[in-house]
Specification:
mainly alpha
Length: 279
């Protein structure tokens, strides 16, 4: 249970750190670069140098390829999530990000013939209804950027699907190495972006990068530990529901975000859908 609490706290801190970085007008690409550098260093430190985690050559390249795909998705999702936090707020952005679990659920049906049980089907229907209901059609709702929210959901879901593929083809004891390689590739991608955009890196960017990167690594390590000792039907509903609740309350208290009645109802619907999708 301690690992699960660490993952929940880390995800909540990550969102608040990213929101604070946006409010501080930091350079987005610089913060994301520093985030992956600090995340990789933390994983390396906590993993003790990955002793005993050597892979045979024929499995090393597939692992590197999966890490590359995951890194591309992670960097894109982080940049989109930053923009959505600025445009839409922390609460609704986090809710849609956690709803990304729909993507691996649907892809598992299409690719692996893993047909969902009745309650998962109910969760999919409820989630779809919540997305439709959350759309504000009034003229005064023009500040909501639903394209960004959709991208947050899709990219977050594809990242979860990459994790599923890892679990299918690689042993769990290699997760620390996989996470480190993913963070390292992400840092390399963002280094190219920073150089091409000639983005300056200030001390403020480095500080916020650390505030984002350390909990970012903590999420992965916490979930690994939680999944090893707790059943999935406890880990994923509690994790998703707790993060949504904390971020929505924190957004109201820390950033004065006031969700509309429609947003509160749709968030409740999505939280219920997540429980159904993860049991």
């Amino acid at each position: 249970m301690r690992s699960l609490l660490i993952a929940v706290a880390a995800n909540s801190i990550l969102v608040f750190s990213m929101k604070s970085a946006e409010n501080a007008r930091t350079h987005r690409t610089a913060v994301v670069l520093c985030n992956y550098i600090f995340g990789a260093l933390l994983v390396l430190l906590l993993s003790g140098g990955f002793s005993g985690q050597a892979l045979p050559g024929e499995r090393l390249w597939p692992l590197a390829g999966l890490a590359l795909a995951g890194a591309c998705l992670m960097t894109a999702c982080m940049l989109i999530q930053q923009r959505s936090l600025h445009s839409n707020g922390a609460g609704i952005t986090t809710t849609y990000n956690r709803l990304g679990v729909l993507i691996p659920t649907v892809l598992s049906v299409l690719l692996f013939r893993e047909y969902p049980a009745a309650w998962k089907t109910c969760g999919i229907v409820l989630a779809a209804a919540a997305i439709v209901y959350s759309y504000e059609r009034r003229a005064d709702s023009g500040q909501k950027n639903y394209v960004l929210l959709a991208l947050v959901l899709i990219l977050g879901g594809l990242i979860d699907f990459i994790s599923k593929l890892y679990g299918m083809f690689f042993p769990p004891e290699m997760k620390n190495l996989y996470t480190f390689v993913s963070f390292l590739i992400s840092a390399a991608i963002m280094s190219v972006v920073v150089l091409l955009k000639k983005t300056p890196i200030s001390c403020q960017d480095v500080v916020y990068g650390a505030l984002v990167g350390i909990p970012n690594a903590g999420i992965t390590l916490g979930m690994i530990g939680a999944a090893a000792v707790l059943p999935a039907y406890i880990v994923f509903p509690v994790y998703s529901g707790a993060v949504i609740l904390i971020v929505n309350i924190g957004g109201a208290l820390l950033f004065k975000e006031r969700p509309t009645r429609r947003e509160m109802i749709s968030t409740g619907m999505i939280a219920a859908a997540l429980v159904l999708l993860n049991i």
